Amino acid sequence: MNSLLILTRRRNRECFRSRTNQIDRLSPLRRTAGFSLVEVTLALGVAAICLVVSLGMLPASLKTQQSSIQQTTANQILSQICSFLRADVRLPPGLYRQVCPDPPDPYESCNWDDLHGHWLRVAQPPDTVYFTHAGKQIGGVNGSPPADAVFRAKITYNPVPPTGSTSVANIVVSWPAAVDPGNGGVPAGSVTSLIAVNR
Fold it and tell me: How many Å apart are CA 169 and CA 158, to the nearest integer?
């Protein structure tokens, strides 16, 4: 009986030791399962650097967006001027004012008739027309820029050789309106088009 008791105690001890060894082998795994303070600090530092870089690019992206909006508006103004000049050629005499809205909008000026017939004149000085930020014509032709003018359109008429029967207009839309590229000013941006008015 004693021998059975001794064998049982030995088995219990061996079992206890094997379980202890198993627990000791698992313990280091449990200790390394989390992040250390150094690792967390480095991760936060990398995230902060990425955030600062992305915030630093924000002003450049806003400037690019503003520039593209101005470019689009300038192209719309260019298209509007081309449409008016071609309509001025095709409308019968006395009906050139039909390029303005019918009935005229009381809140929207229509000064296109100030350009009527200019495409016929040879050696005509360039016409300058001003527009708001929304692309609406403002002020008269060849005057000083109004206070709320954003875009300046300069229209130069050239007869095409050899007969001069076809008139060509060179249109330059630039911004801001206060800067005159013809007097050596450097605009923030501009678009140019050369059109045959009465082809």
Answer: 6
